[in-house]
Design the sequence.
């Protein structure tokens, strides 16, 4: 699975990363890369973070690798959104785009990829990084409680549309 992240979008949506950005833009980027590289160590997904170089960037697109994360800075005059769309178009593997930008989300969805908002991804990221282990006894108790309640079905099934079911399947892999 390939995860493409709109870097500044995630930083500015996240309350924990935003405080680093208040110190400096570089501190915000470093905090994001550190957090995402820890996630990569645990999950093993291919991750690309795209940052905007629209105003102050280089004349050419810059690529680097930091902590096993591919980092791309768009060239001057090009938005990170355009780079993300291009990467989504070229990706042949299962791809999830992380951005709260509606334009990117609708474009990616039309291309058959999955879009996830920055806040939703941050929640999944925090859950994956939290190393809380549930004991077997507690897990067994929950399973028993779930089996005790039987409800009869009434009315039509509330099945999600196929596209949303496929998106949820991909998101569960995160």
Sequence:
């Amino acid at each position: 699975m390939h995860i493409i992240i709109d870097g500044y979008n995630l930083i500015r949506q996240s309350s924990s990363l935003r405080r680093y950005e208040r110190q400096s833009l570089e501190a915000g980027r470093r905090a994001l890369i550190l957090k995402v590289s820890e996630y990569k160590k645990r999950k093993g997904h291919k991750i690309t973070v795209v940052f905007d170089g629209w105003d102050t960037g280089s004349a050419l697109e810059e690529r680097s690798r930091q902590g096993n994360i591919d980092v791309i800075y768009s060239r001057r005059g090009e938005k990170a959104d355009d780079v993300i769309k291009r990467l989504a178009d070229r990706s042949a593997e299962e791809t999830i785009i992380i951005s709260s930008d509606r334009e990117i989300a609708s474009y990616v969805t039309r291309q058959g990829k999955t879009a996830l908002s920055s806040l939703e991804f941050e929640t999944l990221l925090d859950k994956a990084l939290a190393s809380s282990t549930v004991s077997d006894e507690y897990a067994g108790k929950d399973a028993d409680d779930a089996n005790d309640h039987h409800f009869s079905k009434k009315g039509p099934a509330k099945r999600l549309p196929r596209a949303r079911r496929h998106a949820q399947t991909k998101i569960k892999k995160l």
Notes: Residues 15 and 119 are 10 Å apart (CA to CA).
